[in-house]
User: What shape does this take?
Amino acid sequence: MSESLGLLPALPLLGFLILALSGGKLPKTVVALVGAGSIGLAFLVALNLALPIIADDSLIVRETLYTWMAVGSFEAQFGLTLDGLSTVMILVITGVGFLIHLYSTGFMADDPSYSRFFAIMNLFVASMLILVLADNLLLLYLGWEGVGLCSYLLIGFWYVDPKNGYAARKAFVTTRVGDTSMALGLLLLFTQLGSLDIQELMQAAVANWSVGSGLAIAATLLLLGGAVGKSAQLPLQTWLPDAMAGPTPISALIHAATMVTAGVYLVARTHVLFELAPSVQLLVACIGLATLLLAGFTAMTQHDIKRILAYSTISQIGYMFLGLGVGAWSASVFHLMTHAFFKALLFLAAGTVILSLHHEHDIFKMGGKRRQLPIAFASFLIGSLALAAFPFTSGYFSKDEILLAALEFETYGTWLWLGGVIGAVLTGFYSFRLVFVVFFGGSNGHHDAREVTGFSMAAPLFVLMLLALVGGFLTQPTAAVFGAHGQAGEHTVSAALHAVMIAAPLLGMLASYLVYGIGLIAPDTILRSGVARGLHTFWFSGWGFDWVYQRVFVAPFLWLARLNKHDIFDSVVSLLVRLTETANELLARSQTGSLRWYVLSVVGGMVVVLLATDLGGLL
Amino acid sequence: MSLLAILLILFLGGAAAWASSLLHPRLPRWIALLSVVGAMLPLVTALGDPAVSDGGWLIEYNLNWIPSLGIRFSLALDGLSALLVALTGFLGIVAISAAWNGIDERVGFFYFNLLWTLAGVVGVFTAVDLFLFFFFWEVMLIPMYFIIAIWGHENRRYAATKFFLFTQLSGMLLLISILGLVYSYSLQSGSLSFAYDDLLSVEMSAGVEWWLMLGFFVAFATKLPSVPLHSWLPDAHSQAPTAGSVLLAGVLLKTGAYGLLRFTLPLFPEASAAFAPVALTLAVVSILYCAKVALAQTDIKRLIAYTSVSHMGFVLLGIYAWNLIGMQGAVMTMLAHGLSAAALFSLAGGLQERLHTRELDKMGGLWRSAPNMAVVALFFSVAALGMPGLGNFVGEFLSLLGAFSVSIVATALAALGMILSAVYSLWVMQRVFQGEEISQSDEEGATPLSDLDARELVIYGLMMAGLVVMGMFPTVFLDYSSAAIERVVSISGSLSDGFGGR
Assistant: This one.
C-alpha cells in the first residue's frame, strides 16, 4: 500500500526520463503512449490510494523514501504524506492532467517538437505531485520550483518568437520574487521552530506562538509572498496573462487547473499558521477580493480568447483566496477542484476553437460559430455556466460556500461578501460575453472553419463537461485535515441574501445578453463617453500594473546595470595601471643622457638627505 | 604515500607529456588524460577506508624537508580536502577534454602546464605545513599564467599580467603573514615550525592576530574572489583558453574558500569572529553587485565570470556564518559551482570554437541547429539559478540557512541574488539559443553550427549526473565533510560568547 505513494510521482518522472533521454527520436505514437500513458497509470494509482481515504478521511498514508539533507540539527526527509487534502490534489492533478495529456496527443500532433512537449508535461506532473505530497516544506519547495521551471519551459515552448521567450522569463522571474519570499519564510520557520516537517511545524507553532504573535505574522507574510506569486494574485498577477503564449493545453493544465492553484494549496496546507496570524488571514481575504474584482473588470474588456480565460482564472483564484482568508479552507479547496474541471474544459475548448480557426485568438473575428464548432460550443456553454456559478452546476456549490463563509466572517464580513457578489456579476458578464461573441451573431471571419476534432480531443471535452456539470456533488475528504473549524457547516442565511447570490451571475449574464446577444446597447455607444473609454483602456491594460512595474523596477534596474557595465572596481584598477604608466613616463623623461643634469640631481639629492638627517638630529 | 603518489603522478605526467610532444603531437593529451586518471586511483583506494569520522586526518604523509627552519614536507587529507581533490581530478579530465581538439600549438607545453596547475591545486588542498602550502600556492599560479598568456585569446597578455599581479601581490601578503605567524610561534615556544598543528596553538596579542588574519584573508579573498578584489577574474576568464577557464572557475577559486576554512578561521579565530560582519557584508555585496554587473555584459565569458563571483559570495556567506549548516552549505556550493561553472565555461568555449565570437549580440536561435547543446546549456543555467534537485540549490540554501541565524538582514539581501540569478541565466538562454536563428551568411567563413559530439556528450552527461546526485543525495557529500567542518565550527564554540547571538 505505502509503496505506491512513491510510485505516484515516479511514473510521470519515468515518462519524462524516457522521452528526454530518447532525444526526440521516438515515433509519435510511442511518445503519445509514454507521455499520456504514464499519467493515465498515475491516475489509476492515485485512485487506488484515494479510495480508502475517501471512505475514511482521518486516514493518513506516509512514506519516507530517504533522508534528503541532514546537517547538524537540520534534517529534511524525502518523505511523502497523503491525507484528505492531498488526496483531492492528486486526483485533480492526475485526473484532469490525464485528460489534458490525451487532448494534447491530438492538439500537438503536427508539432515538430512533440516529444519535448510531452517530456516537459510529464516532468511537470511529477513535480506537481511532489509539491502536494511533500511532508516537509523544503520538499514542497522542490516541487514548487520544479513546476515553475516546467511552466517557464512550456510558455516559451515555441522559442523562435522572442515574445514567447519574454513571456516565459517574465513568468519565471515574477514568481521567483514570490519564491524568494517563501524561501525566507522557510528559513525563519526552521530557525524559530527547529523543523520544516509540516506536522511538527504546525504543532510547534501552536505550542510556541500565541495568536497574533509577530513571528507568526512574519512567517505567514513570507509564505503568502510565495503563494501570491504562484497563484497570480495581487501584486504579482501580471505574469499570468502573458503566460498564455504557450500552447493551449499548457494553459489548461498549468495556468488554470493545477500549478496556479499551488498558492491556495500552500495556504491551506499551512492553515494552522495562518490561524495564528489573523491579521495576515484578513490580508489574504483582501488580496483575494481585490484580485477577483480587478481581474473581473479586466476580463470584460479583453479581445483575446485566452487572455479572457487567463483573467478569469486570476479572478477565480481570487475567490479561493477570499475563502482562505475567511477561514473557509475546505470551501476554497472545493472551488479549486471545481475550477479545475470547468476551467480546463474552457481552455481545451478554446484550444479547439483556436486550432479550428487557424490560430485565431481575437473573439471579434469569430462570431456565429455554434454550428461549425458544436462540441466547442457545448463545452463553452457548460463551462461558462459553471464558471458563472449557475445554480446546480459545479461552480455554484463551491462559490456559494465561499460567499456564505465570507458573509459570516466576523471582520468586514458583509463587505467581503458584497465584493464577492459584485465579482459574481462580472463573472456572469464576461463569461457570456465570450459565448455570445464567439458563437452567436453573424460570422466575422473564418467562414469556412471546420471543427478539428477526433477521439483524443473530443473525449476529454465530454468528460470535463460532465464533471463541470455534476462535479459539485462530489464529496471531498478534507474534514479531518481542516477540523470542525473551516468546514462547510449549516449556514443560517436569510433567503433574501441567498436570492441575491443566485441572482448576481444571472444579472451579469442578462447584461451581456443585452449588449452582445441582441445588441440592444452596442458596446460602441457605451465607449463613446470619455469616462467609459478611459476606464476601458485602463482595465484593458490590466489596471496599468505592467506599465508601473516597467517604470519602477525594470527600467531603473536596466539603467543601473548599463551604467556600471565596466565595473567601477575594475576602473579603479585600470586607473592604478595608468598612474604607474604615467609615473614611468615621467621618470623615463628624466633619463636625458645629459651629464650635467645627472650631477645636478645627485648633488641636489645629497643636500636633501643631509638636511633631513640634520633636521632629524636637531629634533 | 598515496598523497605523494597523486602529486608525483601529476608532476611527472606533466613532464612526460611535454617530452612526448617530440614524438607525436597527439601523444601529450593521452598522457595527460592517463596521468589524471592514474592520479585519482590512489585517492579512490585511500577513500576505501571508511574511517571518516574519527575527527583526525584520513591519510598523512610526513618528511623532513628543511629541519633547520622547521619546514616539513607534510601532507594530510581529511573529508573536506578529499572532496576537493576529487573535484580537482574530475575537472582535470573535463579540462583535458575541453582542450582535446582546441589546442594545437605547443601542445606538449600546454599539457605540462595543465598538469602542473592540477598538481599545485592538489598540493594546496593537502599541504599541512604552511611553507609547503605557500610553495604549492605559487606552483599552481605560474603554469596558469602561462596557459592564459600563451594560449589565450586576443587580449591575453593584459589578462595574464593582471592575473599574475593580483595573485602575486596577495601571495606576498600571505607569505608575510605566514612568516609573522611562525615568528609568533617561535617567540612562544623557542623553536621554528611551519606545521599547521603547531601554529594552531599560537597565542597572539589581539593586534597581531588582527593583522595576520587580514593578510590571510586578503590573499584568499582575492582568489575566491570577493568584491572589491575580483577584477582580475573577468579578464582572466574571458581571455583564458577553455581548459584554463574550466580550471580557474572549477578549482582555483575553491582554493580561496578552502584557505579561509582551513587556515584563516582556525588560525585566527578571535580576529576572524570580529571580522565576520565585514566578511558577511562583502559576501552580500559580491552576490548582488556581480549579479548586476553580469547582466550588462555582452561577452558571454565575462558574463559567466561575473556570475561566478556572485555565486562565490554564497560560499563566503556560509563560511562566515560560522556554523555547521552554513559552512556545509559553503562546501556544497564549492562542489556544485565547480561543476556548473566549469560546464558553463566549457559551453561558452564550445560556442566560441564554433562561432568564432563571444559576443552575445552575434548569437541567437542556436536551439534549432544544436538542440543537444541547448538542452545541456539549459540544464546548467537552471542549476546555476539554484533549482532544487540540483547541487547548487543545496549549497545556497544551506548557506542562507546558516547565515539566517547570524544576520537576518544579510540573509534577506543575499536571497535577492536568487532572483537576479534567474534573470541573467534565463536571459543568456534566450540570447543564445532561443529566438530567430541568426543568419550564418552574415559571418564570413562561418560554418553551420555543429551540435555536441560524443566526447562532449559524455563529459557533460557526467557533470549533469554529478549535479543531480549532489542535489538529490547531498548527504553523501555532507557526511563526508562533516567531521572536518565540525572541527572548524567547534573552534568558534570555544570563543568568547556573543558571536552566535548576533
